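User: Thanks for the earlier help. One more: Transporter substrate-binding domain-containing protein. Can you show the sequence and predicted structure together?

Assistant: Of course, both are below.
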Amino acid sequence: MTLKFSFRAAALGLVAAMGLAGFGSHAEAQTLEKIKEAGVVRIGVMGEQAPWGSIDASGQNIGYDVDVARLIADELGVKVEFVPGAVAARIPNLLTGKVDLQMAVMGMYPERAKVVQFTEPYAGLKIILLSSAKNKIETIEDARSMNIGVPRGAAQDTAITKLLGDVPNIRRFDDDSSTMQALVSGQVDAIGGNTTYKINLDKAAPGNDFEQKVVFQEQWMGVATKPGDKEANDWLNAFIQKIKADGRLEAISQKWLGAGLPQFPASLEGVPYTVQ
């Protein structure tokens, strides 16, 4: 069974089991109303993946997604509650109501768009393979015999499994930190990650020789809501357009990524930005 099939089956199974197919109904799509009544918005973020979402020495959530989430809460006039979670828990946490919005580096892919609703993109990165400079890797085939670490269920897991098949030397870890630690400690020869992994690797192992080897794809991130929630989706799309236009999103990108905003795609095949 391929990872792609497993992800889709698990996600669709969760939707069916919980009776979530009816999220398009007006009665079940009152996310914004419930948030305002509660006075707090619960937003899913990563807890150990700088610069997107991590926790500083004082116990505060920080990062690109965190800053955007704070702006969402300010715009809504409510407090924000951050809910860190593992990669594999992101969609279940949203669909089971543990979070109101999911922003934990949520790559926008057609399989995911079948079970959650994405907004237009607010951030982007590249999905890559990293390894020591000593290893000559020009294509993923050059790494076929190597032990490759990936966060279970992440975009890089899907990309590498699709290219190599579900081979036993793909080692799956529960989160990004465990995956990077496996590379630093020599448990694996290479890891699937994204373009911001190098920032964390340099902190964990100063002077390392890890480098980008292969680029699998460009990933765009949107805010994920429950399917059919048109009110929340429309509000969030207008909000993203607003912070792009007034420069606040550009400032967040410069702060955390050291670069300006990319040219966001007007559309992504198989991933609608609005409720259909």
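User: Great, one quick takeaway?

Assistant: The CA atoms of residues 110 and 270 lie 5 Å apart.
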